[in-house]
Write a structure and sequence with these properties.
The complex is a heterodimer of chains A (268) and B (581).
Chain A lengths: L1 H20 L13 H32 L16 H30 L8 E8 L2 E6 L20 H5 L12 E3 L2 E4 L4 E7 L4 E5 L4 E5 L5 E5 L5 E7 L11 E7 L1 H15 L1
Parallel strand pairs in A: 1-5, 4-10
Antiparallel strand pairs in A: 1-2, 2-3, 5-8, 6-7, 6-9, 9-10
Helix pairs in contact in A: 1-2, 2-3
Chain B lengths: L1 H11 L7 H6 L4 H31 L4 E2 L3 E2 L2 H20 L1 H15 L8 H20 L30 H30 L12 H32 L10 E2 L2 E2 L7 H35 L6 H14 L15 H29 L8 H18 L1 H5 L1 H7 L3 H31 L5 H27 L13 H4 L2 H31 L62
Antiparallel strand pairs in B: 1-2, 3-4
The chains are: A alpha+beta (268), B mainly alpha (581).
């Protein structure tokens, strides 16, 4: 029985580890400035925890086989433990866990402790059951007023956001169903939600943030690869949660300017 | 002290009831109440497992028409998610290890004739039972059960118009949880008082079995956590029905103003997770105690580092209340607090690692007997490690940005809080069944059950890590709408097949349980040659546990292979030995 346990535990460990190491399923390629740092820390954590996993499982399998009744040991040893060992592994695991944490805190601080740069592109991202809307402030750099009582979800676009057309700042606001941003510019997203909590998740950007009714949450990221990236809702928001899907188009600055100009022209 | 204790014993020794109702239904006997909790959890686990089976079927065949149930719609899938989680967390993982085994064995293991408050004990069970009935009723009302997930994030859970099931079904859901909290609070008070006041002569705190320590600390966690959830539940009911706005800000549903303003959705999350994280330890601590107990018994060795184990349980309990914010890194909470919550969470890995080292240390130089309870205890260690090491990924906000709400989280908490705890419950069942029912369970069936469940649990939950690392999101009823998630469908297929086999093999357990109750081989009073007090009394134990005698304790709980002792185990009531290191 000891041998069977050893074989099963070791095989489970081998199979599990294989698919991690072979990266059969893995994170999509990172496309934001922060992705490299995050992925690097993921890899560091992965190797350390992977080592703990393999070592613990191998030890468990070995010990149950080695110390089985009827095996090599005649009699169990009468020992209540070893205080020195307890201190050693307490200190070691504290260093491992707290150290790992401190190593990543600078990335977190860079992402979340500072405001976006002054020249960042501002995009207001609004979640509602079950769609994302993206609003740009236009040439005046100011978002127009929105009022909950003006919201008309079925009309879509500006009406869905409840844009107050009497506010001068709203005249040049552009509302889009897809998110278009220029590459290599910092994007400041202002996250809002009308009804329930949604979560704005772009796996390739390593970016996720809840959009909470009643809050306007400011976050930033910098795309460094052009391309189309999927946006998925990552917080349960109701029956259509699974199809609350959006697209992020990262384009060159020229294409972005052209796209924006065309949207402004449509508004006139 | 001795006179005080014997007086306490005398006042709690009540006469054995004769009628069926007083003996088996409204019983004051902690053993009967323990069994009532256990069978409630057994019923609940099969309901919860059936719901998960429907979820697994829907995930890979979204258009399938099922006999009697028809097609599972996306909203139905979410009600399955919600009810599966709620039933499993409250009525299985909280109910069986603490309410079931804790009730039955805590008084016996400390040498008490019953719980400190037998009437309160009866009330706490029937309150819990009422909670279960109310919860299941949510399936049968207009609109059906709620779809907001077991965490019930507001405003989704606070607004009738937020989706199907958010009407009466959601009211029943939150009412059920509030009722459960009341039952759990009564139980917690009882456990704490009993442990502190009802110990037999010589049963010092540091001679208590680690199972008792685990139940004791779990009860303290319950007392502090369920009160908060109860308050939150009442506030949510008020938001839903009385027009208050604790959790709901100004907003609209489908363009219609909700009529609320000024509330905070994050307040609900803080209150919920202030309960929710300690709840994880409420589920796992008794299993840890169980595992420690069994590794020592079946390695025929004292537990490695008893004191370290006790301190680790306390540290886990203490730190467990300071880490709730790690569920909220992406919630819009201040990013500075994330830093503090993260450090605390990583810190909780330290006592967890200490326990693992001590379990391995206990096996080392032992003489391991591979009984079915021992197999489940060894399986527990393996699963605890596997479920544990994904914790430090999620505990670091910078990695949680990516992993939050993916299947990586599902894999993590199912392995450590779900499967590992369930392994604790299985181990406890196989271990204590002879004492509870006077018969042995069938060993070959038990072993078959172990192998299928152990391999099956890995086959189900290991692929969920891969799915989550590929950004596969939880609570998605279908993979069809997001291109990158659709590509992961083969993993879901594999998981569903593994779930089918693993769920089917649980029937081996049920058959064994009920068959052995009536047809199993007669058990002796101490079939495992273990040392703690439940093994000195008759099988099954008499109404007052020790037949009128009060045990006197002279030894620690894990004196195995003591040199020069006549047997390889020394009972806690045997003449005192001088423990050597």
């Amino acid at each position: 029985m000891g041998l069977v346990l050893l074989v099963v535990i070791w095989l489970i460990t081998l199979f599990s580890t294989y698919f991690f190491v072979a990266k059969t399923w893995w994170l999509p390629a990172g496309a934001s400035a922060a992705a490299a740092g995050i992925d690097h820390h993921f890899t560091v954590t992965f190797f350390l925890m992977g080592f703990v996993f393999v070592a613990a499982q191998l030890a468990l399998g070995y010990l149950v086989w080695k110390y089985r009744e009827g095996g090599s040991s005649e009699k169990a040893s009468y020992s209540h433990g070893n205080t020195t060992l307890e201190v050693v592994w307490t200190v070691l695991t504290t260093i491992l866990f707290v150290g790992l944490n401190l190593a990543s805190s600078s990335i977190w601080a860079a992402e979340r402790f500072r405001a976006a740069e002054a020249n960042a592109v501002h995009v207001e991202v609004t979640g509602m059951q079950f769609a994302w809307y993206f609003r740009y402030p236009g040439p005046d750099g100011k978002f127009g007023l929105t009022k909950p009582e003006l919201e008309d979800a079925s009309a879509g676009g500006e009406a869905a956001l409840g844009l107050d057309t009497h506010d001068p700042a709203s005249k040049d606001d552009v509302v889009s169903g897809i998110m278009v941003v220029p590459v290599n510019r910092e994007i400041e997203v202002i996250l809002r939600a009308h009804d329930v909590i949604h979560s704005f998740f772009v796996p390739s950007m390593r970016f996720k943030q809840d959009a909470v009714p009643g809050l306007a949450i400011h976050m930033h990221f910098t795309p460094i690869q052009t391309g189309d990236y999927e946006i998925a809702c990552a917080e349960l928001c109701g029956l259509g949660h699974y199809k609350m899907h959006g697209m992020l188009k990262v384009v060159s600055q020229e294409e972005f300017d052209k796209w924006m100009a065309a949207r402004e022209a449509e508004k006139q | 002290m001795a006179t005080h204790e014997s007086a306490a014993h005398a006042s709690h020794a009540h006469a054995a009831p004769q009628g069926f109702i007083r003996k088996w239904v409204f019983s004051l006997d902690h053993k009967v109440i323990g069994l009532q909790y256990y069978f409630l959890a057994l019923l609940a686990v099969f309901v919860g497992m059936f719901l998960s089976l429907l979820m697994r079927i829907h995930l890979i065949w979204p258009a399938a028409t099922l006999p009697f149930l028809g097609e599972i719609k996306p909203e139905t899938y979410l009600t399955l998610v919600t009810m599966h989680g709620t039933i499993m967390v409250f009525f299985v993982l909280t109910t069986a290890p603490q309410g079931g085994f804790g009730n039955y064995f805590l008084p016996i293991q400390i040498g008490a004739p019953d719980m400190a408050f037998p009437v309160l004990n009866m009330l706490s069970f029937w309150t819990t039972f009422l909670g279960f009935v109310v919860l299941v009723a949510a399936f049968f009302v207009t609109g059906g059960a709620p779809l907001h997930g077991w965490t019930g994030y507001t405003p989704l859970s606070a607004l009738q118009s937020a989706g199907p099931g958010e009407g009466l079904g959601a009211d029943l859901w939150i009412t059920s949880i509030a009722i459960f909290c009341i039952g759990a609070l009564m139980g917690a008070l009882n456990f704490i008082t009993t442990t502190l006041d009802m110990r037999a002569k010589g049963m010092t705190m540091m001679r208590m079995p680690l199972t008792v320590w685990a139940w004791f600390v779990t009860a303290i966690l319950g007392l502090l956590a369920f009160g908060v959830l109860l308050s939150a539940g009442i506030l949510l009911l008020m938001d839903r029905n009385l027009g208050t706005s604790f959790f709901v800000p100004l907003g609209t549903i489908n363009g219609q103003l909700t009529g609320h303003e000024g509330g905070s959705p994050l307040l609900w999350q803080h209150l919920f997770w202030f309960f929710g994280h300690p709840e994880v330890y409420i589920a796992i601590l008794p299993a840890m105690g169980m595992c420690s107990q069994l590794l020592s018994v079946f390695s025929r060795k004292p537990i490695f580092g008893y004191k370290a184990m006790v301190y680790a349980i306390m540290a886990i309990g203490f730190l467990g209340f300071m880490v709730w914010g790690h569920h909220m890194f992406m919630s819009g909470m201040s990013p500075y607090t994330a830093f503090a919550f993260s450090i605390m969470t990583m810190g909780i890995g330290v006592p967890s690692a200490i326990k693992t080292f001590n379990w391995l240390g206990t096996l080392m130089r032992g003489r391991i007997r591979f009984t079915s309870p021992m197999l489940f205890a060894i399986g527990f260690v393996s699963l605890f490690v596997t479920g544990g090491i994904s914790g430090p990924f999620l505990a670091q906000p910078v990695l949680d940005i990516y992993l939050h709400e993916t299947y990586f989280v599902i894999a993590h908490f199912h392995l450590i809080m779900g499967v590992a705890s369930i392994f604790g419950i299985f181990a406890a069942t196989y271990y204590w069944f002879p004492k509870m029912f006077g018969r042995m369970m069938n060993e070959p069936l038990a072993k078959a059950h172990f192998w299928l469940t152990f391999v099956g649990a890995y086959a189900i939950f290991m692929p969920m890590h891969y799915y989550g690392m590929s950004a596969g999101l939880r609570r998605y009823s279908q993979s069809t709408e997001v291109a990158y998630i659709l590509k992961l469908l083969p993993l879901q297929r594999f998981i569903t097949i593994a779930a089918f086999i693993t769920i089917a093999s649980q029937f081996i357990f049920v058959v064994n349980l009920f068959w052995s109750m009536f047809k199993g081989a007669k058990a002796s009073d101490n079939p495992w040659e273990a040392t703690t007090l439940e093994w000195i009394t008759a099988t099954p134990p008499p109404h007052d546990n020790f037949g009128g005698r009060t045990p006197v304790v002279n030894n620690g709980p894990y004196e195995y292979s003591v040199p020069d002792a006549p047997r390889d185990f020394v009972m806690q009531t045997d003449p005192e030995i001088k423990p050597k290191h």
